[in-house]
Each structure stands twice: as structure tokens, then as C-alpha cells.
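Predict fold of GNAT family N-acetyltransferase; 233 aa.
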Amino acid sequence: MNSDIAVIDNPVAESLLGPHSPLGRRLGQAATYLPGVSTFCALPTKPEAADWSDLAELLGSGGFADMFSNPAVPPPDWDPVFELEGRQMIWPEGLPAGAGEAAADAETVELGPDDVPEMLDLVARAAPGPFGPRTCELGVYVGIRVQGDLVAMAGERLRPPGWTEISAVCTAPEARGRGHAGRLVRALVERILSRGERPFLHVADANTGAVALYERLGFTHHAAVTFRGYRTP
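Predicted 3D structure, encoded as C-alpha cells:
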């Protein structure tokens, strides 16, 4: 399993340089995803003034730069939009207990382009974080339906070499407390491990319920991160 842990220090940049390069735009050392895929932007860990200028050109005046967990501070004429404390969690080496059970779960279905309207509706109601009309192109998304309605989903997002991030874990308010999120995360863990990659994820510190769930499933704390977003001048 090739899982150099250093690559998840700047996972957006590593993803856009690798598997997600067809889904991004690049100028110099600045990069961002295509509209509708993600608002995440990437710069070197220690960017220079020219790198910020290139990113501003990519985004345009008043563009939104979601810097994810990059700690670099932009020029003073960039307006801060949000700052959120969180953590990066990683899957330890090895298969989860009861490996294979998640893959055999008949209620877990793979989601595709035809499911996007329902996925966007679920995101609007469950608020798991940023998700656009093309976000599902980043990786595999799985869901659970009850009487035909999509009530829970989770998927793959960032793809630094040797790793896959699990994201968009959400359950409709009326379907919570039934273990749907845990089942979907386990299904993705098994799928990622089967490719010889290692799962990781990000979660807001304030989301104590999600943190507790991921710990129960087997994820461990790796690093504290601060998520930041800005508007270009």
C-alpha cells in the first residue's frame, strides 16, 4: 500500500496535480477545480506573491478562494469569508473488523449522474459541507434509499497519491439514528482499501457527533487543521 503520509499535508494540491488534473484549471503553481466540481484552490505550502496573483487571475475579481487547510495567509487586499477549526483523521493500516459485510449490504447503492438532483436536495437538507452539481465526478458516491427516496449518502473527494478522502457523509433529518452514515463510510473504506489506497477524512471540531462516529469506525486523529476561505480583490 503506497500511502506516503506527507501528501495529505496539502491534499488539494496533490489531488489537482494527480488524478483530478482533468477536473481542474491551472496557472503557474496556482490551481483550482472547474466550476461546479469544487471551490477548493491549491497553492504551494509557502506561496509567493506571484502565486497569489496567478490564483486571483484564475478566479477573477471577487472570486471565492476556498483554501481548504492550506495555512498560507493571502495578501491583505483579499477579504476573509470564513475560518473553521477542524481535524484530519486517517484510517490505520489493515482491514476493518467484519470486512466484506459492507460490500454485501444490499441497501447500499452506487450513485451516478442521474442521481445528482436528489443528491443536491439531500445536501441542502443535511448540510454536510460544500457540494456542487459536478462534485460526484471526483470519485465514487454511494447512498441508501428508503421507499425509493435517497436518505443518506457518502462519497470520495480528494485523491492525493495513495489516499482517498471520504466526504459528503450525510443523512436526511428524518432518517437519522439508524446507522446509515456508518454503513456508507464502512462501504467506502472497504472499496478504497481494495484499490490499495488508504482512507482519510476531514471533520469540523464542532461536529462532535461525526467525530465520535469516525472514531468508533476506526479512524484516528492525525492533525489539527484550520479551513479558510477568501474573496479575491
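The radius of gyration is 18 Å.
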